[in-house]
TrEMBL record:
Transmembrane segments: none annotated. PROSITE patterns: GATASE_TYPE_1. InterPro entries: ChyE-like, Class_I_gatase-like, GATASE. GO terms for molecular function: transferase activity. Keywords: Glutamine amidotransferase, Transferase. Pfam families: GATase. This is Glutamine amidotransferase [Amycolicicoccus subflavus DQS3-9A1]. One of its GO terms (cellular component) is cytosol. PANTHER family: GLUTAMINE AMIDOTRANSFERASE YLR126C-RELATED. CDD domains: GATase1_1. Residues 51-194 form the Glutamine amidotransferase domain.
Length: 247
């Protein structure tokens, strides 16, 4: 019996960043290209996703924000958000295994009625994450230390979660670093696929996307070295191990 593959949805239009993200998801998830299929939503329409074909779905991050002014959104971003909203509505309703990294907070949050705004943004670089009591008991996060370093950087975040949604982690400036809907739908604000080399790639690729002043790129790289980012990748590996199923 073969294993059903996982599906990675990418919103990165830039090849270098998209390919690095895909490689990192495979590496830290313990998968190869047959085990993790990719759809680059900036390059093609999502189409129909038959959940029965997949072990689970992952969503990567990128420059889109659901809280962007609608008048500033490109036609591609508008299409992608509509496709993701329809898919995630089904994912949540069926409690299908899903892990959304960074952009997942906004997209899943929009579907479940969370308050998504720019109040709790964080700069690009290292962040210290603290598990909640629920996070310590969670099957995906329970193997992590109570406090660990991660890499991230985001303009929007969840300011409030609706009743019944489980907050799993927080940081000093961002009260919702991860949450769970039902038993199997997860979103993280930090990037579980990101190591120091991946962060350098993101800084180089996105230095003109408004996350930081371009002239500070080298200083951001230097500061990132202060963080010991070795634990977040456990989330990816555990997600894959927990949800891999045969077909």
């Amino acid at each position: 019996m073969a294993d059903a593959p996982f599906l990675l949805l990418s919103i990165r239009a830039e090849d270098e960043a998209a390919d690095d993200e895909y490689a990192a998801m495979m590496r830290f998830g313990g998968l190869d290209e047959s085990g993790l299929r990719r759809v680059r939503l900036t390059h093609q329409e999502l189409g129909t996703v038959d959940l029965a074909r997949w072990s689970g779905i992952m969503l990567g991050g990128g420059p889109y924000n659901v809280s962007d002014d609608a008048a500033t959104k490109s036609s591609t971003q508008t299409r992608v958000e509509g496709e993701l909203a329809a898919l995630l509505t089904e994912v949540v309703a069926r409690d299908f295994p899903f892990l959304g990294c960074c952009y997942g907070v906004g997209t899943v949050g929009a579907v479940i009625g969370a308050e998504i705004d720019r109040v709790h943004s964080e700069p690009v670089g290292g962040v210290t994450v603290h598990l909640t009591d629920d996070g310590r008991r969670d099957p995906l996060f329970g193997g992590l230390p109570d406090t660990f370093d991660a890499y991230g950087g985001h303009k929007e975040a969840a300011a409030r979660l609706p009743a019944g949604v489980v907050r799993l982690a927080s940081s000093r400036d961002c009260p919702v670093q991860a949450f769970r809907v039902g038993a199997n739908v997860y979103a993280t604000q930090f990037h579980p696929e990101l190591d120091i080399d991946g962060l350098y790639t993101r800084i180089d690729v996105y230095k003109n996307h408004g996350y930081f002043a371009p002239e500070t790129a080298d200083a951001l790289k230097d500061d990132a070295r202060r963080y010991d980012v070795t634990h977040p990748m456990t989330v990816l590996r555990t997600f894959v191990r927990r949800y891999t199923r045969g077909v």
